[in-house]
Amino acid sequence: MENDIFGNAILDYQLGSYTEDIKTYSSLDEEDVIPVPYLFRKFKVMPSLEQRALKLCKGRVLDIGCGAGSHSLYLQEKGLDVTALDHSPGAVEVCKLRGIKKVVRSDFYDFKNQTFDTLLMLMNGIGIVGELKYLDQFFTHIKTLLKPGGQLLIDSSDIIYMFEEDEDGGYWIPDTENYYGEVTFTMEYKKQKTKELAWLYIDYNTLQRAAQSSNFNCELVSEGEHYDYLAKLTLNLQ
Q1: Using CA atoms, how far apart are residues 191 and 197, in angstroms rounded to an integer?
Q2: How many angstroms from the chain centroid is the CA of residue 74?
Q3: What is the C-alpha separation between 153 and 217, in angstroms, rounded?
Q4: For the CA atoms of the chain, what is the radius of gyration?
Q5: Beta-carbon contacts of residue 229 (< 8 Å; ≥ 6 apart)
Q6: Are 159 and 201 in contact (CB under 8 A)?
Q7: Could you report the per-residue pLDDT of 134-143, keeping only the tens digit for each?
Q8: In terms of Cα–Cα distance, which of 195, 161, 193 is closest to 180?
Q9: Which residue(s) pair with 103 in the sheet?
Q10: Of 26-35, 127-136, 220-229, where does mean pLDDT reach its minimum?
């Protein structure tokens, strides 16, 4: 697990060897920290959007990008049939150690031949898409994982607030061909760094248009306090 920066950090915490947090560096010229203990949070201290999403889960659930497994663990304790999915070996090991019964190590696009009533992608899980141009590929694969009448629950953020606002209430966005929510970042833990990763933050209107073009209904379930939101997507069967 030499390059499994995220997995190494949460596995250290699980095994009682927590000494530092994960540092992140993004193309937005921001340095930030992911507090590792926060990834092990209980339901009562989760953001309201996450709580709402977990309460909407039904039937057989796939927790995509499960991380330390806090969402999966809550759903399992509530009696739901949940599968925790992550490509990180460390994350998979942590989920097993925390008692999650169904844990799968796989890249999202390599996971096939199973269907679910609820697909869960929290903590900006749609970030794995990387760039807007890959949304069609993303939705195509989502369709193979959904049971008839199934739902995809996603939270994300409109990061327009990170750009300078002008006197008219607009924003100064760099003049590039890229969508402003397309970000690259690296993670650092114990002096080891990941390679640069592409990550997508998507505003709700852009998500809704992309979803509709792929024959999904897209509903704004709830909005958070800081440009974040929870959306529910279902296939349009008409």
Answers
A1: 17
A2: 17
A3: 12
A4: 18
A5: 49, 155, 156, 157, 158, 204, 220, 221, 222, 223
A6: yes
A7: 999 999 999 9
A8: 161
A9: 84
A10: 26-35
> Which pLDDT value is given to residue 173?
53
Residue 58's CATH number = 3.40.50.150
Hunting for tokens 């977990």 — which residue is that? 54
pLDDT (tens digit per residue) in 57-71: 999 999 999 999 999
In the chain, the amino acid numbered 123 is M
Q: What's the domain range around 37?
A: 5-235
Residues with Cβ within 8 Å of residue 197, at least 6 apart in sequence = 130, 184, 185, 186, 187
The pLDDT value given to residue 172? 47
Residues contacting 6, CB < 8 A, separation 6+: 22, 67, 88, 90, 91, 187, 189, 194
Total domains present in the chain: 1
Both tokens of 100, joined, read 């999650």
* Cβ contact 214:136 at 8 Å: yes
- 151: its two tokens: 């739902």
pLDDT of residue 76: 98
Q: Is the pLDDT of residue 165 over 90?
A: no
CA distance 199 to 217: 24
- pTM here is 0.93
